Amino acid sequence: xxxxNFLILIIGIITTAIVLSxxxxxxxxxxxxxxxxxxxxxxxxxxxxxxxxxISVGNKPYSVGVLY
Length: 68
Prior knowledge:
The protein is α+β, with helices and mostly antiparallel strands. It has one helix at about 1-20, and strands at about 30-35, 40-45, 50-55, 65. It has one domain.
């Protein structure tokens, strides 16, 4: 089971890197949260805690990123 957890972690890191690298401008105080059930990443405004964008990324993304 440890192999699967490691694989899921690596896939999550790669997915987060792809999402972040595809953004044309990354603003401070945005939180990127994966939604594995529907294959999207929600972009949340860190000051208002509201979803400002949902990005389709493919099958079962995994991980969370916070930019300051």
